[in-house]
Structures are given as structure tokens and as C-alpha cells.
Amino acid sequence: MPRDATGASNPDWTDPDCPVARTLDLVGDRWSLLIVRDAMDGARSFTEFQRRTGIARNVLTDRLRKLTAHGLVAQRTAPSGRRQQYVLTDAGRDLFPVIVALRQWGERNAFAPGETHSVLVDRHGNPVPAIAPTSADGTALDADTTHVRKAP
């Protein structure tokens, strides 16, 4: 039986041997990635996530539970001591390049030429350069220069 990242049995993996499929099983719906995006942008409370995304309360509750259960988000008591906060774990922060790649794809393909959109900038206000995978020797990689080696 397929196992999840914790070693527990998980019969629900779409394709148990494929890292892309497993990742999509965990964060492949639009709400999960938007929650991660907003957490990266400073959202911490249930109310903030709901306000920023417009997500229904029941769906947000479900996604936060799932992200927490899979170790992408952790719950902590807010400094006031009255409410819970949601913070990204190391695994959640590891999604940063994924969010950036999706953003950059969207900038190139989801807007008409000249249409305005938000821009991701570094701490100095400079636009973040395009993410481009490279080989160990620095050669640019794409779908034509890579292939998947299947698990034995």
C-alpha cells in the first residue's frame, strides 16, 4: 500500500511513485496554494486568509487542517494568547520556488500584453528574476532536455 511522507499508509495517492502527483495531491487545489501564498505574504489568522482569498469558511477550515496534517503549516497561539495563528513550516516555505514559478508563468501567459498585475520584488524593490532550471554545468534545462527515470 502506498505510504505518505510520514510513512503512514495512504491509499489515496493519485500516482504513488510520482513526486508531481503526490505534490498535487497535497497542494494541487487552488485554495491550498493561495493559502500558502498568503502565508508567505504575512497572513496568519483564519480571518486574514478568508479576507484575502474570499474562500468559504468550511473550505478554509478543511484546507488548513489538511495543510497542518501534512506538515506544511503549523498552528501556534497568537501573541495575544486568545487566538490561533497559522505559520509555514520548513516544508511550507519550500514551496516558495513553486509559487514564484507559477507567478512567473502567469505573468507571461495569463495576462494580455500591457495588462496590469502585481509584481514580486526583492527587499530592494527589484523584480525577482525569472526562475530557470539549469543542469549541474549551468546549461539551461527544459522539457526537451530532461526525462523522468521511473522508480524500480
TrEMBL record:
Pfam families, per the entry: HxlR (PF01638)
UniProt-listed InterPro entries: ArsR-like_HTH (IPR011991), HTH_HxlR (IPR002577), WH-like_DNA-bd_sf (IPR036388), WH_DNA-bd_sf (IPR036390)
Keyword tags: DNA-binding, Transcription, Transcription regulation
Domain of life from the UniProt record: Bacteria
Domain annotation HTH hxlR-type: ranges: 18-114
CDD domains xrefs: HTH_ARSR
Chain residue ranges for the region called Disordered: 130-152
Protein known as: Helix-turn-helix domain-containing protein
Originating species: Streptomyces olindensis
